[in-house]
Design a protein that fits this description.
Number of domains: 3
CATH topology of the largest domain: Isopropylmalate Dehydrogenase
CATH superfamily of the largest domain: Isopropylmalate Dehydrogenase
Radius of gyration: 22 Å
CATH class of the largest domain: Alpha Beta
Bound molecules: NADP nicotinamide-adenine-dinucleotide phosphate
Largest sheet: 11 strands, mixed
Shape: globular
Strand content: 15-25%
Structural class: alpha/beta
């Protein structure tokens, strides 16, 4: 059996990212922990790391370089250390602030609901951030996929996903139903399962704050609060109200509400301002299909965010090219948005695009925007040349089928 001290090797040529006055200070040689992932994880990581390294080298003429540090989770951690999620992995990610990971298997036993959920909870990565944009040439089920360019901020810690629920007929649900019916004069059927939907000011406001800050820093035109507040007034409706409150109290100088837009600015958003509006979730599903170009940053509770981000990704051609990140106040973990696709493990076959784009997102987050753009542009060029992995090749006429690693190499070749 390996020991943790043998396995967790701090790269001698790297320095830690630090935080000063609430901002990351990124050295030229930052230590970035990575988790390879399970199933196809090692394949896509092997294709991704050279792409990130090549972009950084090219963009900064060799003056910047990531010092990668492997940390362990999932099957590899279990094989080496008999632990699916070693504390040292969490501590290392927390210490170095920014990390990247491949997909992880959810162990069937072992007491975890999901390793991904555990990582998010233990590091308090409260915002799930999913930028969704179209890459020309990718087969899409809609007519104008190029109009989609949105970033979803999904609350990660509460809502019906908090896991507070009891099955119908259990002692717990029976007690709760009896209590609510008696004390609050309600009439919940006694054979109901019960789930609790907590939505707090704290979790809502830190999420919306992060979404607005992102819009400010990235020159985005609007932040839309997506909720079902017409029906669930004190959870989803409160999410909307607390979101507007953050916008007004903390970003009043840069945000304009829809009402102000029409009353004071004749419908024309003033230069440098961000429109803050809200939409009811069901209507928003129509909006993303019929008027996607009117939306930019979306902030929403957990369940809405889960549905909405997958619907948006489908519009631009599916999960293979969707980057993602889970971001807290002092820690961010970037990750592929698909699962481990175990049937393709070690076949060097699947599309590494999601992890590569998560890497580009990470570089953006570190302020290394030139390198990030280089990756995105080269990936676009690679797809336009129809040199793609099986998932895209099977949908494109005249495409050349590449292995996972070859797709990464092609992206590097296409960097200019
Ligand atoms: P999945 O691994 O995402 O695979 C489902 C299907 O999606 C694959 O069979 C494949 O479709 C396609 N696919 C996935 N990744 C792809 C890629 N990189 N390139 C091209 N196509 C890709 O979902 P799953 O089979 O439901 O889950 C497997 C395991 O992953 C489970 O243990 C689950 O818990 C875990 N999981 C982890 C994460 C995470 O770590 N964030 C997320 C979701 C699931 P075709 O066969 O049709 O080509």
């Amino acid at each position: 059996m390996e020991t943790e001290s043998n396995l967790y090797k701090i790269p001698p040529d790297g320095e830690p990212i630090t935080i000063k006055d609430g901002h990351y200070e990124v050295p030229c040689n930052p230590i970035i922990p990575f988790i390879e992932g399970d199933g196809t994880g090692p394949d896509i990581w092997k294709a991704t790391q050279p792409v990130i390294d090549a972009a950084v080298k090219k963009a900064y003429g060799g003056k910047r370089k990531i010092a990668w540090m492997e940390v362990f989770a999932g099957e590899k951690a279990n094989n080496l250390l008999s632990n699916w999620l070693p504390q040292q992995t969490l501590d290392t990610i927390e210490k170095y602030h920014i990390a990247i990971k491949g997909p992880l298997t959810t162990p069937v036993s072992g007491g975890f609901r999901s390793l991904n959920v555990s990582i998010r909870q233990k590091l308090d990565l409260y915002a799930c951030v999913r930028p969704v944009r179209y890459f020309k040439g990718v087969p899409s089920p809609v007519c104008k996929p190029h109009l989609v360019d949105m970033v979803v901020f999904r609350e990660n810690t509460e809502d019906v996903y908090a896991g507070i629920e009891w099955p119908a007929g259990s002692q717990e649900s029976s007690r709760i139903i009896e209590f609510i019916n008696r004390e609050f004069d309600c009439s919940i059927r006694t054979d109901s399962g019960i789930g609790i939907k907590p939505i707090s000011v704290t979790a809502t406001q830190r999420l919306v704050r992060q979404a607005i800050r992102y819009a400010v820093e990235n020159g985005k035109k609007s932040v839309t609060l997506v909720h079902k507040g017409n029906i669930m007034k004190f959870t989803e409706g409160a999410f909307r109200d607390w979101g507007y409150q953050v916008a007004k109290e903390e970003f009043g100088d840069v945000t304009v509400t829809e009402k102000d837009l029409w009353n004071e600015y004749k419908g024309q958003l003033p230069e440098g301002k961000i429109l803050i509006n809200d939409r009811i979730a069901d209507a928003m599903f129509q909006q993303i299909l019929i008027r996607p170009d009117e939306y930019s940053v979306l902030a929403m509770p957990n369940l809405n965010g889960d549905y909405m981000s997958d619907a948006l990704v489908a519009q631009v051609g599916g999960l293979g090219l969707g980057p993602g990140a889970n971001i807290g106040d002092t820690t961010a973990v970037f990750e592929a948005t698909h699962g481990t696709a175990p049937k393709y493990a070690n076949m060097d076959k699947v599309n590494p695009g999601s992890l590569i784009l998560s890497g580009a997102l990470m570089l953006d987050y570190m302020g290394w925007r030139e390198a990030s753009k280089m990756i995105v542009d080269a990936l676009q060029k690679t797809i336009l040349a129809k040199t793609v992995t099986y998932d895209l090749e099977r949908q494109m006429d005249g495409a050349t089928l590449l292995k996972c690693s070859q797709f990464g190499q092609e992206i590097v070749k296409n960097m200019i």
